[in-house]
Design goal:
Oligomer: heterodimer
Structural class of chain A: mainly beta
Strand content of chain B: over 45%
Number of helices of chain B: 0
Radius of gyration of chain A: 13 Å
Radius of gyration of chain B: 14 Å
Helix content of chain B: under 10%
Chain lengths: 109, 121
């Protein structure tokens, strides 16, 4: 089965840039989506189709996807960005399967 | 405004069957291209997709759990129901329902607030 790998944690200071990666075999050939989950809350979509932002998501959130790595970049990190972030793809080799990464905890120092 | 709300028992015993209901508003389960999925999250762990039902009643299941899962919908009640048989303590977690807006979309937005299910005797 297809697996997505995320680093367990990333720490950045306020105002700096956070980069959260999602690794997977030829992930560049898939459309990657990113979710933000704050403690005790449901996930919220922050990027879809690699780099598109839903309405209401700040421009500070951007994404890229190539080769075996997709990246969520958060510019000018704020305290309110502290959360778990999950990547997700729709994998179609075999039965359709919606796959999530293991999540990355972003800590704002 | 599109919303989804999960409901169901907070506690189930091992070997019992879990039935969860997702009540949607702000959109119709009849709308072409719409689908609703169930996704779960054990405490402190990652998200896991479980099942999906499309507007035209196509169903998809997690390969690892398909023998235990059934997804269905009642369009007249705006509800999607998930049943999971033979519950085990490892099935403890928060169960979410989420919408995929239209054909060709592969993401989930929005999500319900989640329903915490504990499996214990």
């Amino acid at each position: 089965s297809y697996a997505l790998t995320q680093s367990p944690s990333v720490s950045v200071a306020p105002g700096e840039t956070a980069r959260i990666t999602c690794g997977g075999s030829s992930i560049g050939s898939y459309r990657v989506h990113w979710y933000q989950q704050k403690p005790g809350q449901a996930p919220v979509l922050v990027l879809f189709d690699d780099s598109d932002r839903p309405s209401g998501i700040p421009e500070r959130f951007s994404g890229s996807n190539s080769g075996n790595t997709a990246t969520l970049t958060i510019d000018r990190v704020e305290a309110g960005d502290e959360a778990d972030y999950y990547c997700q793809v729709w994998h179609t080799s075999g039965p359709p399967n919606w796959v999530f990464g293991g999540g990355t905890q972003l800590t704002v120092l | 405004q599109v919303t989804l709300r999960e409901s169901g028992p907070a506690l189930v015993k091992p070997t019992e069957t879990l039935t969860l209901t997702c009540t949607v508003s702000g959109f119709s389960l009849r709308t072409s291209g719409v689908s609703v999925s169930w996704i779960r999250q054990p405490p402190g762990k990652a998200l896991e997709w479980l099942a999906r039902i499309d507007w035209d009643d196509d169903e998809y299941y997690s390969t690892s759990l398909r023998t235990r899962l059934t997804i269905s919908k009642d369009t007249s009640k705006n509800q999607v129901v998930l049943t999971m048989t033979n519950m085990d303590p490892v099935d403890t977690g928060t169960y979410y329902c989420a919408r995929t807006p239209s054909d060709g979309d592969t993401w989930f937005d929005p999500w319900g607030q989640g329903s915490l299910v504990t499996v214990s005797s």
